Fold this sequence. Notes:
The chain is α/β, with parallel strands linked by helices. It has helices at 16-30, 55-63, 79-82, 91-100, 104-107, 135-158, and strands spanning 4-10, 37-43, 85-88, 110-112.
Amino acid sequence: MKKIKILFVCLGNICRSPAAQGVMQRLVDERGVSEKFEIDSAGTYSGHRGQLPDPRMRRHASRRGYDLTHHARPVTIDDFEHFDIIVAMDESNRRTLCHLASTPEQEAKIVMMGDYIVKLRAHYDYVPDPYYEGAEGFELVLDLLEDACSCLLTSILKK
Length: 159
Ligand code: 4NP
C-alpha cells in the first residue's frame, strides 16, 4: 500500500511544524490509520538543524500529552518529489516553498495550514510564529494545530 506522505513546514522547524507533526501523528494513531501515513516536518531556515523542538514548545505540548522528539532539518529539493502534501504554516513559508518547487506539479503540493482552521477561523487564517511570544503564543499554536490537523486529516481520508 502506498502511504500518504505529509510534510509540515515552518521557519525554524523547532516550534510550529514539529508540533504539527506530533499532533497529526496522534490523530492518525487515534483514528487507527497510522499505517497509511508518513508524517515529517522541516524548516525553510537551516539555523536550528539537528535541534530538538524549542523547550517552550516541548513543555506546552507535553502538557497536552505530545512528546516532540523530531530533530530539526531544512527542507530539501527531494522533499518536493517524496511528499504528497507540503503544509506551510504561514504566507512567508508558502512563498519560500514556492520558490524551491521545481515544477508546477511540485508547487501544487503546497497547501496552507490556515485553510484547514475551522473553530478559530474568525480570528486566524495562518499559524503565527510563537518564537518571540509568551506562553499564550505556544498555547495558541497548539489550539490552531489541533483544530487544523483534524480538518486536514478528515479531508484527506474523504478522498
Ligand atoms: P518556527 O519558530 O518557525 O515555528 O520553528 C521559529 C523558530 C526559530 C526562529 C523563528 C521562528 N528563529 O528566528 O530562529
